[in-house]
């Protein structure tokens, strides 16, 4: 429905008394309640569309609602977590174009790709530095699995980085970096992601047994009753 027509209808309903201003206030409160799955879906969809995703992927974007219940969405906020969404079918190349990232991993065919078959709604800690520190890549992969979390791919990491930047004004991993266990270089090396000294998102490839106290891990959490 045309937006102007909707406004005219609402004005007429206010004038004839079939709608009260208090009704509009209640609607506005519901509209901003980010513990309601449909509200969350609409907000995320509007954000992606405002970035120009439909021009990038050459199709209309229609996100599915997160599987998290209203209580679980409240819990995400209480746990100091951010809810992210990686739309289905979106490639690494498309994410780089969307978020204006010039990355070598997008140009190198030896870097593995991971495309989500369904919209991936996931929660992650709102932390500037990785949660699991001072571990080798293979250790991070095991720790995250043991805690019933999902490991990161480069695609998931790019979405997480940009979601935190836009909605929380937070640039993560500028001092300590994060292992990306699910994205491999030449099938053996794991990626490490973070921001370099020029404040640009960058990736490096290291063997999973590489160890430094400046690299840690981040797990992401999905709904356990999909």
Jot down its keywords:
226 residues, four-stranded mixed β-sheet, two-stranded antiparallel sheet, 9 helices
Describe, in plain words, how this protein is organized in 3D.
The protein is globular, with a radius of gyration of 20 Å. The longest helix is centred in the first third of the chain and has 15 residues. The protein has nine helices and six strands, in the order αααααβααβααββββ. The mean pLDDT is 90. It is an alpha+beta fold and 226 residues long. The chain has one domain. β4 and β5 form a beta hairpin. Strands 5-4-3-6 form a four-stranded mixed sheet. A two-stranded antiparallel sheet has the order 1-2.
The total beta strand count reads 6
Tell me the fraction of residues in β-strands, as a range. Answer: 15-25%
Radius of gyration: 20 Å
Low-confidence stretches: none
Structural class call reads alpha+beta
Main sheet record: 4 strands, mixed
Number of helices: 9
Distance N terminus to C terminus? Answer: 33 Å
List the helices and strands and how they pair.
Layout: H1 3-15, H2 21-31, H3 37-51, H4 53-57, H5 70-78, E1 81-86, H6 92-98, H7 104-107, E2 120-125, H8 137-146, H9 154-168, E3 177-185, E4 189-195, E5 201-206, E6 215-216
Parallel strand pairs: 3-6
Antiparallel strand pairs: 1-2, 3-4, 4-5
Give me a quick take on this structure.
The chain is α+β, with helices and mostly antiparallel strands. The protein is built from 9 helices and 6 strands, in the order αααααβααβααββββ.
